[in-house]
Structures are given as C-alpha cells and as structure tokens.
Amino acid sequence: MQVEMTVNGERVRGDVEPRTLLVHHLREGLGLTGTNVGCDTSSCGACTVHLDGRSVKSCTVLAVQAEGAEITTIEGLASNGSLHPMQEAFRQNHGLQCGFCTPGMVMAAVSLLEEHPSPTEDEVRHGLEGNLCRCTGYHNIVRSVLAAAETGGAS
Ligand code: FES
Ligand code: FES
Fold first, then answer.
1. Mean pLDDT for the chain?
2. Pairing of strands 10-15, 2-7
3. Same domain as 103, residue 45
4. Structural domains in the chain (count)
5. Which domain-ending residue is among 45, 76, 107?
6. Is this prediction's pTM over 0.70?
7. Which InterPro entries does this entry report, sorted A to Z (predicted)?
8. Of 93, 109, 110, 122, which sits most exposed with the smallest number of CB within 10 A?
9. Residues 65 and 90 in one domain
10. What is the pLDDT of residue 155?
C-alpha cells in the first residue's frame, strides 16, 4: 500500500506492506540509514526519530501510522552545512561514541530540551533512560545535553 509523509522537510511517497515498521521504511525504503535498529524489544532507542515534533521509537510505529506525519531523522537535524546545536554539543563534549546509539541519543536529547529547556542532571539522565548505550557510563552524553541547554537548547 502507498504511504505518504514529510521526511526532513520533503514530501515522500512509498510502497509498503501493512506490517512494515517506520524504521524499516526510513532505512530501506528511503535510504535514511542514520536511524538504527538495535534491539527487537523497543528498549534501546537506536531507532528514535521525531514524529510530529515528538520523539518516538520508530520500531514501535507502523509506516502506515505515519501517513501524513512530519518526520525528522538524524539526517534532517543539520541545516545549511551547520551542525544542530545538540550535535555540536555532543562533538565538543565527547558525547559522540559509536554511530549506532548516537543518532537516537541525539534525537531524544533534542526532544528532551524542547520539553525541559533547563534540565537538571537528574532530569537529563531520566529523560534519556529509554536510550541504551552498552559501552559508556553516559557521563559525556549527559554533559553534552547540559551544555546544549546552556547554549540555547534544542533549536
Ligand atoms: S530498535 Fe527501536 S528501541 Fe531498539
Ligand atoms: S552503544 Fe554506542 S557508544 Fe555504546
């Protein structure tokens, strides 16, 4: 069946099976491979994107449920050749670890600051609980989000 949505500002149509997950449509249908699949239990957050401005795990959404929606993926954050402030904060504070968890972590962090522009460290840790990194202590990731909040937040 046909599904149409706006992805990173561009209207796109695609043919999907009814059971196709949004994450697979983004990766395989649209070639946006920055959104990753890290688990099959909706627990890792590697697949996090923004759907109509809210952060969602795209492995828990059917592509057809996103009909008519506005989707932003990690590929859509930078603009005019400049990193998004959150990407810049991750770069400067060594929050960027592997390419697998980082895109989802950045997308979740942007949403977090949209909802809580000046979070405490605890609020950042709580806000990123749905995003797992198997190899770090999260310290630099939390530092990055706090730094982004200080320099103007999510946008
Ligand atoms: S792939 Fe979606 S939460 Fe892990
Ligand atoms: S899973 Fe990506 S740095 Fe740990």
1. 94
2. antiparallel
3. no
4. 2
5. 76
6. yes
7. 2Fe-2S-bd, 2Fe-2S-bd_dom_sf, 2Fe-2S_ferredoxin-like_sf, 2Fe-2S_ferredoxin-type, Beta-grasp_dom_sf, Diverse_Oxidoreductases
8. 122
9. no
10. 60
Q: Which of 21, 36, 57, 105 maximizes ligand 1 atoms within 8 Å of its Cβ, making it the mutation to test the pocket?
A: 57
Mean pLDDT for 144-152 is 92
| CATH number of the domain bearing residue 50 | 3.10.20.30
Separation of alpha carbons 108 and 130, rounded Å? 9
Q: Which residue is it, tokens 């990055």?
A: 144
d(CA 5, CA 35): 16
- Ligand 1 pocket member 47 (CB < 6 A): yes
Mutate to test the pocket of ligand 2, among 48, 136, 140, 142 (most ligand atoms within 8 A of CB): 136
Q: Tell me the per-residue pLDDT of 68-121, one tens digit each, with 9 for 90 and over.
A: 999 999 999 999 899 999 999 999 999 988 889 999 999 999 999 999 999 999
Range of the structural domain that residue 60 is part of: 2-76
Structure tokens at 15: 């043919």
Give the Cα separation of 2 and 12 in Å (integer): 10
SS3 string of the chain?
Answer: CEEEEEECCEEEEEECCCCCEHHHHHHHHCCCCCCCCCCCCCCCCCCEEEECCEEEECCCCEHHHHCCCEEECHHHCCECCECCHHHHHHHHCCCCCCCCCHHHHHHHHHHHHHHCCCCCHHHHHHHCCCCCCCCCCCHHHHHHHHHHHHCCCCC
